[in-house]
Amino acid sequence: MKKGVMRPGHVQIRVLDMGEAVKHYTDLLGLIETDRDDQGRVYLKAWSEVDKFSVVLREADEPGCDFMGFKVVDEAALNQLEKDLVDYGVEVEQVPAEELKDCGRRVRFTVPSGHAFELYADKKYTGKWGVSSVNPEAWPRGLQGMKAVRFDHVLFYGPELAAVYDIFVNVLGFYLAEQVLDPEGTRVAQFLTVSMKEHDVAFIHHEEKGKFHHASFFLDTWEAVLRSADLISMTDTSIDIGPTRHGLTHGQTIYFFDPSGNRNEVFCGGDYHYPDHKPITWKAEDLGKAIFYHDRVLNERFLTVLT
């Protein structure tokens, strides 16, 4: 079933004030700024990532997410996936190489939930930040804030989850790892993976199209999540909820907001997924426990604050 998509590659986030945003994502989250372009966009990466960037910030009049990109294994896979999308009836757009600095050509498409995604095969390989590729030390010195290890996934809110599922599973080769079903058996949340991770992208049903819930970054330990909670308070950063545990995926988590109102997550742990695993199902009537395993009740902000 594998079609050549390897992993999440990047996300472009809209911010209201670039100076405040860069400070948040570098000083607090601990990402490293790697470049800027003539459009004023800022490129960032987490220290363990081998490509030049995984987060792009674009100053705009309203916050949110422009697109999420997935890296594929090579140009042949990109060509085949592009053909498969077109054959499936998905309209694709060609984004030329270097539109994002040091990134190859991208194939962009919008799914029925209103979210834009893109596939690409090439991006400048810069290696892990601050550690050698020969006899590397355990971690780099000089990391800031939460010391984010990698960009991990994005959660989107929008309608037509079944149609979105069909594209990601039947065309792109993702697997359904976890789901939430309502009493009628309709899937109202889906967690999709193309790796051993519990999810690389996720969708929750919402009537309005194209809404961005959060971008998530991986940390190594529960202690690192607790330290992140301290940093959120030390910097008077707006917090959503946590530290706590999810029922879905079982990750240990904390949510907070960047200065523009975009939600971030840092987390550790979580389940794993192999292709022979059957999806884990949660019941919608138990959604409180599914999302916040300890409180077992929904935080209203989690469902309603979107960008």
Automatic annotation (TrEMBL):
This is Metapyrocatechase. It catalyses: catechol + O2 = (2Z,4E)-2-hydroxy-6-oxohexa-2,4-dienoate + H(+). Keywords: Aromatic hydrocarbons catabolism, Dioxygenase, Iron, Metal-binding, Oxidoreductase, Repeat. The keyword Metal-binding applies. Belongs to the extradiol ring-cleavage dioxygenase family. One of its GO terms (molecular function) is ferrous iron binding. InterPro entries: Catechol_2-3_dOase, Glyas_Bleomycin-R_OHBP_Dase, Glyas_Fos-R_dOase_dom, VOC_core, Xdiol_ring_cleave_dOase_1/2, XylE-like_N. Residues 7-122, 150-269 form the VOC domain. Homotetramer. The keyword Repeat applies.
